[in-house]
Write a structure and sequence with these properties.
Blueprint lengths: L7 E5 L13 E18 L10 E19 L4 H12 L5 E10 L4 E9 L12 H10 L1 E2 L2 E2 H14 L5 H17 L1
Parallel strand pairs: 1-5
Antiparallel strand pairs: 1-3, 2-3, 2-4, 4-5, 6-7
Helix pairs in contact: 2-4, 3-4
Length: 182
């Protein structure tokens, strides 16, 4: 596997996959190892409130995660990092990391990504499907209902051919709760 340290890559595993918010040269499927996509971050603003936090995705330890890597022109490195830090590090629940990522075609690159800080108060830890579905189905924040975030994430992942059995199970449980409520 060839590694090119001179390129600037960003790895997305949630909304960053379809809403990067920055200019990029290339977008390609990629996998990181040692981390998995998880609804493990309590959202006090965008998908919940301090009184009733919602859940958003974090890159948590264990397993692997299929997502998207973006190659960014080196001239935009500072601009993109500034943007990502404003977007991802608002409450410092995420830690900026350089992770090895394997691109489609088996090429290995190093990509900037944001992993959850398990010591942060917003870290929800490992929740069961039912616990997560209960939280998601009743939470709403400045960016809208938490169930819409999960449904939108799953729709975009399906469109990109990315499967995540745990998130899909939570999505199904949330849909069942929302339909039962009304």
């Amino acid at each position: 596997m060839a590694r090119d340290m001179d390129e600037f890559w960003v790895f997305g595993y949630g909304s960053l996959m379809w809403n990067p918010g920055f200019v990029f040269e290339e977008r390609v499927a990629a996998r990181v190892f040692g981390f998995r996509r998880s609804l493990c971050v309590r959202s006090h603003v965008h998908r919940g409130t301090p009184q009733q936090p919602g859940l958003v995705l974090g890159l948590d330890r264990g397993g692997s995660c299929l997502g998207v890597a973006f190659r960014v022109d080196e001239a935009r490195r500072v601009e993109v990092l500034d943007y990502l830090r404003r977007r991802e590090l608002v409450t410092n629940v995420y830690l900026e990391r350089q992770l090895p990522a394997v691109l489609a075609g088996r090429r290995q690159v190093t990509a900037v990504s944001y992993v959850v800080d398990r010591r942060h108060s917003q870290y929800a830890g490992a929740l069961t499907v039912e616990e997560a579905a209960e939280i998601v189905s009743r939470s709403r924040g400045q960016s809208g209902p938490n169930d819409a975030y999960v449904a939108n994430t799953l729709a975009h992942m399906q469109e990109a051919g990315i499967r995540d059995a745990c998130l899909e199970a939570i999505g199904a449980a949330v849909r069942a709760r929302v339909q039962a409520a009304g």
